[in-house]
Amino acid sequence: MSEPALELKDVRKVYRTATEEIEVLRGINLTVPEGELAVIMGPSGSGKSTLLSIAGGLDKPTAGRVVVGGVDITDMGEEELTKIRARKIGFVFQSFNLIRNYTALENVMLPLLFTGIFDVKEAREIAGKMLEIVGLKGHENKFPSQLSGGQQQRVAIARALAPSPDVVLMDEPTGSLDVDTAAKVLSLVRWLNQALGQTIIIVTHNPEIAELATRTFYIRAGMIYEEPPKKMLIDTIRELKAAGSLEDIR
Ligand code: ADP
Ligand code: MG
């Protein structure tokens, strides 16, 4: 059996400011096996972004362990972490976070080069293919400012996916997009999970994404809870209806 894509073991996070200490995460245990589309929901300020940053090695937990694709990244130094992050973790942010003075192609090439696995020629080739996959053929040499929000987010998704990471973490990826553009990004997310089998963990308020989830988690007061996925409930109701047993219940 393969390793889970992501494991958080009793992860705690305390933020200390000049005047106070807040414990945002109070012992998070989370295992996401390969191939899942896990959705994390929760009120604003509940620690969703903090959790993703820690899972993606962008921030350190105060206590606990973070294991990505079987590799414990908790105590890794910055140099080693940069390589591991490039190879094993993709990140998609609400605000795209593309490098402004790099072209779309160069943005996607960057993590590939950071892995230390690919040379420039290979990185260029893979990046071009990834941009084609997300529907941006012909836009390779444009700068972020020359692309729409939806196109920029697709560049960010191509960048996250390019090195075939163990897990792609998305923090409210449709939060800055209008409804129609969000829907297109959504169907891309679904396709990446269902057709490519990419493990994705996504923080979102978007109910349409929540319906696609294979696992649904909820953060509240520093703890994480798993809910039955909406899809499972919908399928169950459909089966019960088909079998006529829903009528019997009523
Ligand atoms: P969410 O993404 O669920 O809205 P966040 O993870 O961004 O929540 O924040 C959780 C809590 O931690 C909030 O109360 C926020 O103010 C606080 N927080 C986040 N980052 C920092 C930081 N760098 N320093 C101090 N407090 C922070
Ligand atoms: Mg957030």
UniProtKB/TrEMBL annotation:
One of its GO terms (molecular function) is transmembrane transporter activity. Keywords: ATP-binding, Nucleotide-binding, Transport. Residues 6-246 form the ABC transporter domain. Coiled coil: none annotated. It comes from the Archaea. GO terms for cellular component: membrane protein complex; plasma membrane. This is ABC transporter ATP-binding protein. It comes from Infirmifilum lucidum. The chain holds residues 1 to 250 of 296 of the full protein.
